[in-house]
Amino acid sequence: MKIATRVIAVITVAVLTAMPVLAAEPADKPGVTIFATGGTIAGSSKSNTDTTNYTSGDIGVQQLLDAVPELEDVATVTGEQIANTGSSNIDQAILLKLSKAINKQLATPDTHGVVVTHGTDTLEETGFFLDLTVDSDKPVVMVGAMRPATAISADGPFNLLEAVTLAASDKAMGRGAMIVINDRIGSAFYTTKTNAIMLDTFKAIEQGYLGAFVSSQPHFYYEPAEPTNKPSFDISNIDSLPKVDILYGYQDAESSLLTAAIDNGAKGIVLASTGNGSVPKRMEEAVKKAMADGIPVIRSTRTGNGIVSPKEMGIGSGVYNPQKARILLMLVLSQTDDMEKIRGYFE
Ligand code: ASP
Predict the structure, then answer these.
(1) Domain 244-346 has CATH 3.40.50.40
(2) Which N-terminal stretch is annotated as signal sequence (predicted)?
(3) Whose CA is nearest to atom 3 of ligand 1?
(4) Atom 1 (ligand 1): residue with closest C-alpha?
(5) What are the residue boundaries of the structural domains of the chain, listed by start?
(6) Residues lining ligand 1, judged by CB closer than 6 Å?
(7) In sequence order, which residues have a C-beta less than 8 Å from that of residue 37 and are 6 or more positions away?
(8) Annotated catalytic sites, by residue?
C-alpha cells in the first residue's frame, strides 16, 4: 500500500471509530390515537400557582401533543379533538360520538390503543361508558390532570406520557378501559374520583389498582382479567339514550323530587341513598309507583363503597356507585324495558 493510501485508510478508520453509533431505526412504533375532550389537562390559568381558578378545555389536542415530544419515542401518535370542555359538560351525545370513534379507530390494524384526555370530574363516567361499549381487546386509556397545563409542576404532561406508553404496551391488552393519573393504573369499571382537589384522587377502595408506573413504564400487579359480570352493549346504531336522573339521599328527604324528575321525562331514577340504599318511608309510595309504571328506581349509596343488596323496594345497585349506575341504566334501558331483566344487570 502506498503511503498516501495508507494515510487515507487510517484517517477513515479513525473517523468511523469517532462517529457516534447510530441506533438502528426502531421497528414501526405502535399506533396510538389521542381523543381529546378538554378538562384540566387542557386547562389554562392566568397564574402559574392558581390550581383551582382556570379555564378547563382551553388548549387543543395539537398543543397537548407538542408539550410532550417524548410521546414520539413510544408511539406513532395522532390526535383527534372530540370536544373541548370541562367534563361536567360532557353529555350523552359526546359519549356516543366518542365510543363510536374509538370502536372505528381500534378496528384499524395500525392502531395499538387509544387515549382519551378528559376532565377528572366526570372521567369515571366516560371511562365506565367506554368500558361497556367498546368492542375490542385493545387498550382504552382515560387520562386527566388535577393541575392545569399552565401550573408549576403541572401533572398533565407526565400523565399523558404514561397513558400513551400504556396504550402502546402489549401488557395492556384485554384489561378493559383503564384510568391513568398520579402514576397509577385503575380499572375504569371500579375507579372513582375521591378527592375534590388532590392529585391522588382516583381510587377503587375495595378493588385496588391494576398497576402502577415506574419511570413512565407500566407494571401490572395481575394478569388481564374482567370484572365479574361485566355487561357489554352495542351502541353502533344508537343515537340517543333514555334520560336517567340521580337523586341524593338525606334526612328529611321526601318524594317530591322523584315525582318531579319523572314528570320531567326521566325514564329511570338512581337514588344516591344513605347507607345500604335505604329508602325513607316518605318515599316508599313514590318508588313503588315508579316501578309499577315501568320506571326503574335503582338504590345506590352515597357512602362511596359497598355492594348495595336487594331489598323489597326498588332495585339494589350492586357494585355500582350512583354515577356508574346511571350510565349502566341508560344503556340497559336502550335495550330492554323488562323490569326483571333490568334488575338482573344490577342485583
Ligand atoms: N373541572 C375539571 C373538569 O372536569 C376538573 C379536572 O379536569 O380536573 O373538567
Answers:
(1) yes
(2) 1-23
(3) 119
(4) 86
(5) 31-220, 244-346
(6) 39-40, 56, 86-87, 119-121, 144, 146
(7) 57, 82, 83, 84, 85, 87, 90, 94, 98, 116, 117, 118, 119, 126
(8) 40, 120
